[in-house]
Amino acid sequence: MARIVTLLIVCCGGIMSALSTSPIPTPVPADSPAIHIVPQPLSVTPGSGSFALGRGTVIAYHTSNAEVRKSVVYLADLLRQSTGLPLPIVDAATMPKRDYIFFNYIRDESLNREGYRLEATKDAVFLEANNDPGLFYAAQTLLQLLPPEVFADTKQPATAWSLPCVTIVDTPRFAWRGAMLDVVRHFFPKEFVKRFIDHLAIHKLNTFHWHLTDDQGWRIEIKKYPQLTQTSAWRADREDVHWNVRTPQAPGELATYGGFYTQDDIREVIRYAADRYITIVPEIEMPSHATAILAAFPEFSCTGGPFTVATGGIWPIKDILCGGNDSVFVFLENVLREVADLFPGPFLHIGGDEADKTEWKRCPKCQARIREEGLANEMELQSLFTRRIEGMLSGFGKRLIGWDEIMEGGLPARTAVMSWRGVAGGQEAARSGHDVVMAPTSHCYFDYYQGDPALEPISIGGFVPLEKAYAFEPAPDSLTMDEAKHILGVQANLWTEYVHQPAHAEYMHFPRLSATAEIGWSAKQHRSWPSFLDRLETQFKRYDARGINAARSIMAVAVSDSFDTSAWKRIVALSSQSGRGEIRYTLDGSTPSAGSPLYRGPFAISKSCVLAAATFMDGKAAGPTTTRRLSVTAVQNVKISLSSPPENTKADSSGRRLIDHRRAAVAGVDTQWTGWKNSDVMMLLDLGRTTPVQRVIVGFYQSPAGLVFSPPSLEVSTSDDGTTFTQVTRVQEASPVKDPRPTVRDYVAELNGVSARFIRLVATSPGAAPAWHRSPSDPTWIYADEIIVE
Ligand SMILES: [Zn+2]
Q1: How far apart are CA 198 and CA 770, in angstroms?
Q2: Model confidence over 314-349: pLDDT tens digits?
């Protein structure tokens, strides 16, 4: 049954884009609820009135189609949980005349395998598609037409379960709409993996990339090699230390951090995903990122080891699987056979990234292989490695996909490429006829920060705010139509070096995965950041109902301030990524409320204070509270001199940056910081005349990964003549804590109104890095900024 498709795109009451000039759509009735679907459907034509779910509503389908039942049961289960309605499932033959939801196959060539048509009238809701995935996605859209509370897993009180009358015709743009979860850097239990798959389903994402093996662990049971789960799945516990400074497992130490999935677990997750039309792509890394394998099988390396499972970051990764040892390929073939037997999907991911060739260059076996095969270099040896694996996978009925490094040295024809180092590799692969999944770090790496690092949980670095994630275009205009056909789609990746817990994994993926879902699903011309933000407000309510710990970073208040030296005032501007809602703030550090002053534009402060600001919507805080100390140094024309010149690159040797009224940022390398290596440092302030001083505040940076530690103590002395100093106070810092998060620590020295012209500050060196640090004898740095005299 083919139906006429109305190609008018109506969203939020306005026409976004018209693919056809007629008919003119009916204006949206004023009282009809907003239709906020993520990802944005191809066409939405609102009707008038609504369909109400009630005690008499039934869900119908032709029971002869057993496969449809999966979507029917999925929808019924979700609806019953939150509505508490009985919603019996009936055969289409016994369907009542009205008050039903009907799943039905149609024949409509304009809809692809995953497309669907949804029509809600006052009497019934029709979900129609050519294929089962389409019916499943129609059910997902139906859920998003209902109040957000429908996503709760418990019965919700007194909500009107009605949806607006509407006709939606929808079909995805790309076939691969994926998300990756790294379960190696931190292990995530099977229950969370299933929960995550559920989250993907409500976004109409259809691919789950399961990163199962790496240097820090092996997470999949292989029957032939029990050592992989006895040894390779476990590492020494260094969870309290920054990822990049962890010491290796000590001799005799037990490996207690880790875990793995049994093959039964894997089958359970695969079934769960299949019921939600999600294909799992398992990743087994080779030849690099294989330290966990080498811990159990050192003979598969070039050197023979010994090795332990990495406890944290290692770089470069020199110890990789030997490329000239045939027993390595026997091992890999046995492993891949079991993996291929388990996973029904067409693709198997073999990694292939970041293979340092240091050991291959000096390994007799690798060099012999290069000579025998007439290869030009080690790059070509990796290419040969990839080709051998491709041959195995072909034999198992699988296609190989790998990170874009697998293109170096040549690539077998059927292999697909996941482009992570930007989009250029993906474009090149598409031009040479390889299928490509775009997942560049610039837009698709959700282990990167999504907001001001000072307000975010520690992350690996980078910056992919929601708007940037949303702006990604997987099929660049530079590709021809034929080349663009090789762009399978888009994927977001979450590496978990700094992500220890499920709630944190959700925080990093959501709401950014809403952006990925829209990039992968929605027509290019229908993507609109303002429309996305509108719909995201409802999406957040769905996340809340479902208990997804979505980040509110787009609502967080960013503080931009500068010092006006002529007026001797600090100018403060507040903003948020979303620009939605209203910003309210206090200047005494207290948590802002709906009654706090409303931010209307940049304002000036003439004395030091603590600003606290948050975004409010509907009278409630809609994001985290930003707290910032804003200083207005009381004393003008302060001069500074230093006992020794700063040693960090680009530092200003005069020390003026310490008193320039601009505070250095936590993230990255900020040239505002003034740093000294391995020595005490004395900073002398000349206030110009004898002045009563309440307090002196000095900010110090702490970043164990960068060997920057806050000083053990800050001694404060005063003098009237600059010669004879009296120590007034000494601020002590506890010994360096393991806290991996880069922080700024303010040392506050209370001087209680002491009169002085000169203030001498002596910060003591932390000395060598502490014993728990990977480089315990290395010298450390002190980074300071800013000195505030009040
Ligand atoms: Zn070798």
Answers
A1: 44
A2: 999 999 999 999 999 999 999 999 999 999 999 999
Rounded distance from Cα 303 to ligand 1 centre (Å): 7
Spatial separation of the C-alpha atoms in residues 201 and 198, rounded to whole Å: 5
Helices (H), 441-501: 441-444, 466-470, 481-484
- Say yes or no to pLDDT of 22 above 50: no
Q: Give the model's pLDDT for residue 740.
A: 74
Amino acid letter at 315?
W
Asked whether residue 20 carries a pLDDT value surpassing 70, the answer given is: no
DSSP secondary structure code for residue 133 in this structure = H
Q: Report the alpha-carbon angle 716-720-726, nearest 5.
A: 35
User: Closest Cα partner for 561 from 524, 602, 525?
Assistant: 602
Amino acid at 74: Y
Q: What is the pLDDT of residue 669?
A: 57
Q: How far is the CA of 630 from the centre of ligand 1 (A)?
A: 58
**What's the pLDDT tens digit per position in 695-735?**
999 999 988 888 999 999 999 999 999 999 999 999 988 66
Asked if omega into 39 is within 30° of 0 (cis), the reply is: yes
Answer positive or negative: Cα dihedral of 319, 323, 328, 332: positive
Q: Could you tell me the distance, in angstroms and rounded to a whole number, from the CA of residue 410 to the centre of ligand 1?
A: 20
Q: What distance, in Å, lies between the first and last C-alpha atoms of the chain?
A: 79
Q: How far is the CA of 194 from the centre of ligand 1 (A)?
A: 39
- Residue 142, SS3? helix
Q: Kindly tell me if the per-residue pLDDT of 1 is higher than 60.
A: no
Indicate if the alpha-carbon torsion angle 575, 579, 581, 582 is positive or negative: positive
CB contact at 8 A, 544 and 552: no
Better-scored residue on pLDDT, 119 or 16: 119
Nearest in space to 636 (alpha carbons), one of 679, 686, 571: 686
Q: Which one is predicted more confidently, 598 or 33?
A: 598
- The Cα–Cα gap between 11 and 538 comes to 14
Q: Distance from the CA of 402 to the center of ligand 1, in angstroms?
A: 21
Beta carbons within 10 angstroms of residue 428's beta carbon: 15
> Which residues belong to the active site?
214, 289, 354
C-alpha to C-alpha distance for 47 and 69, rounded to whole angstroms: 29
d(CA 58, CA 98): 9
The amino acid sitting at 179 is A
Q: How far is the CA of 323 from the centre of ligand 1 (A)?
A: 5
Spatial CA neighbour of 173 closest among 54, 41, 63: 41
Look up the pTM and report it. Answer: 0.92
Rounded CA gap, 309 and 312, in Å?
A: 9
- The DSSP secondary-structure symbol of 34 reads P
d(CA 41, CA 140): 12
Contact between 451 and 461 (Cβ < 8 Å): no
Contact between 735 and 712 under an 8 Å Cβ cutoff? The reply is yes
DSSP-assigned letters across all residues of 363-389: -HHHHHHHHHTT-SSHHHHHHHHHHHH
- pLDDT one-digit tens code per residue, 669-702: 567 899 999 999 999 999 999 999 999 999 999 8
Compute, in angstroms, the gap from residue 365 CA to the centroid of ligand 1.
Answer: 5
Give the count of beta carbons closer than 10 Å to the beta carbon of residue 341: 11
Residue type, 519: I
Residue bearing tokens 């019996």: 88
Secondary element (H or E) of residue 74? helix 68-83
Residue 528's φ and ψ, nearest 5 degrees, are -150, 120
